């Protein structure tokens, strides 16, 4: 459809890209299919995320996100990457770690592509923990499977007890017993009534 005198294309952009393919999509189709198969996720999901994140621009950089799939350096490192941020601009490297992360988002979303896209964008650590998954395990490992007995790592030192720590607000309340008491009920004002 053309412009009906209004000066814009009446056909939505997303539909045009789905029909015609995004610029650069053909050049990466084999790579996308290979990484999707290796991580057990639909090829269409990987294409959808790439389209959403960078429109197949391998040199895209935005607010600490790198490459076609706009993966963060810290996320790539959690998935096993040991190189620099500039290395994530290589499409092969970017897809290796970003598709692995997307596979975790897909599993955490229970196999929903829309849920996986949302999880990929916002992070899925908390959702994976609620489902009993290890968020950064490789697909196919036992810890990655749904319902595994993954436990949060013990970050506490052996001689440190969690019960010894209180938030500052709780300490303030403990020191001042009348902290939550309305002014007319405080002990220093009771004799006034």
Task: Briefly say what this structure is.
The protein is 42% helix and 3% strand. With 193 residues, it is mainly alpha-helical. 26% of the residues are buried.
Can you lay out the helices and strands and say which pair or pack?
Blueprint: H1 13-20, H2 25-39, H3 43-53, E1 61-62, E2 65-66, E3 71-72, H4 73-78, H5 91-108, H6 113-122, H7 125-130, H8 168-175
Antiparallel strand pairs: 1-2, 2-3
Helix pairs in contact: 2-3, 2-5, 5-6
Structure description:
- By secondary structure, this protein is mainly alpha-helical.
- It folds into two domains: 13-144, Lysozyme (Orthogonal Bundle); 166-192, no CATH class.
- The chain is 42% helix and 3% strand.
- It is built from eight helices and three strands, in the order αααβββααααα.
- It has helices at residues 13-20, 25-39, 43-53, 73-78, 91-108, 113-122, 125-130, 168-175, and strands at 61-62, 65-66, 71-72.
- A three-stranded antiparallel sheet has the order 1-2-3.
- Helix 5 crosses helix 6.
- Mean pLDDT is 74; it is low at 13-19 and 141-167.
Distance between the termini: 81 Å
Our count of domains comes out at 2
The ordered H/E elements are: HHHEEEHHHHH
Rg over CA atoms: 25 Å
Output the strand order for the largest sheet. Answer: 1-2-3
């Amino acid at each position: 459809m053309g412009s009906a005198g209004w000066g814009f294309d009446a056909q939505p952009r997303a539909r045009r890209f789905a029909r015609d393919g995004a610029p650069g999509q053909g050049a990466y189709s084999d790579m996308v299919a290979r990484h999707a198969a290796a991580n057990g996720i639909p090829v269409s999901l990987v294409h959808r995320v790439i389209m959403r994140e960078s429109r197949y621009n391998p040199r895209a950089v935005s607010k600490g996100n790198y490459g076609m799939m706009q993966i963060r350096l810290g996320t790539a490192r959690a998935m096993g990457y040991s190189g620099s941020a500039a290395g994530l601009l290589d499409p092969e490297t970017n897809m290796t770690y970003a598709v692995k992360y997307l596979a975790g988002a897909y599993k955490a979303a229970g196999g929903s592509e829309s849920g996986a896209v949302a999880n990929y964008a916002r992070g899925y650590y908390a959702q994976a923990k609620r489902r009993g998954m290890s968020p950064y395990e490789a697909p196919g490992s036992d810890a990655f499977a749904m319902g595994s007995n993954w436990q949060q790592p013990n970050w506490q030192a052996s001689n440190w007890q969690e019960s010894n720590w209180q938030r500052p607000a709780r300490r303030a309340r403990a020191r001042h017993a009348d902290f939550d008491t309305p002014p007319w009920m405080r002990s220093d004002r009771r004799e006034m009534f």
